[in-house]
């Protein structure tokens, strides 16, 4: 991609998200979302492949529909209440439409079908942007409107997302689709706590961003697009194999890694709120996700790829990909559990 075009796209991505996160007027927030969408669409379709074009079209149509619903809900609310303030969404119909629209933006079940397909048609770097940076603007709107959104709808979507993310991820062999369903499951955990404790939501979101960035950075460095590709990672970089394994276990929420911390706090808070059945279902659904993380871990670290003796090793070409994102996010993704007393105090 032309460096100038690339700079414009990255600047637009940043600008759109920041405008949405800092605005209090619905029109400004909507404009930020649209700028964000229009910036990422050409990034998805850079490969000029039918699959990339299809993914870009799916992403554009989904996000355009969600943005239209956000505009419709805010207009309906403004018509009823006379204000365009984001925090003053008091009309029940507007709140319901807004919840559906934001769920579509994020990729929550049952509005999640676009996410795995779009990620599969994108490059690993673009997939990382979609699953991390592109979640910030809708999350900011959820933060600002959470007092007016229906907790029951959020709980239902959260539980479904966690379960569907786990179930659907079991059957995948493509790493991008696995990460898509991982994203859906993690979004479920965020939504279940959103209306109860926004401080835990913030922490969960930050840790999700760190772990997902670390995982995608590992996949980008090892050029692993399928589970079979991960089997040959050890020939290129044994250290990368170990960090990938640990990051996967952290994504699965195993102690004593960072990923255990948000799930622990969320389950504790749900129990405190006397939501025992929801807590149990969320805990059980995390086992589904853990299964495919463990399967990917097993294939990465403990399995040799099916090949002949002559092709035992990959050529060890020096990677041209920057390793800085991986270096920064991996320690955070693995070693933050000891700071829990600081967070909860």
Automatic annotation (TrEMBL):
UniProt similarity note: Belongs to the complex I subunit 2 family.
Bilayer disposition of the protein: Multi-pass membrane protein
Alphabetical list of InterPro entries matching this protein: Complex_I_Subunit_2, NADH_DH_su2_C, NADH_UbQ_OxRdtase_chain2, ND/Mrp_TM
Domain NADH dehydrogenase subunit 2 C-terminal: 290-343
UniProt GO MF annotations: NADH dehydrogenase (ubiquinone) activity
Name under which the protein is recorded: NADH-ubiquinone oxidoreductase chain 2
Keywords, ordered alphabetically: Electron transport, Membrane, Mitochondrion, Mitochondrion inner membrane, NAD, Respiratory chain, Translocase, Transmembrane, Transmembrane helix, Transport, Ubiquinone
UniProt superkingdom: Eukaryota
Keyword NAD: yes
Enzyme class: translocase
UniProt entry tagged with the keyword Translocase: yes
Residues of the NADH:quinone oxidoreductase/Mrp antiporter transmembrane domain: 23-288
GO CC entries: mitochondrial inner membrane
Enzymatic reactions: a ubiquinone + NADH + 5 H(+)(in) = a ubiquinol + NAD(+) + 4 H(+)(out)
TM ranges: 56-76, 96-115, 152-171, 178-197, 203-222, 234-255, 275-294, 323-343
Cellular compartments annotated: Mitochondrion inner membrane
EC number: 7.1.1.2
Pfam family name, one: NADH_dehy_S2_C
Job of this protein: Core subunit of the mitochondrial membrane respiratory chain NADH dehydrogenase (Complex I) which catalyzes electron transfer from NADH through the respiratory chain, using ubiquinone as an electron acceptor. Essential for the catalytic activity and assembly of complex I.
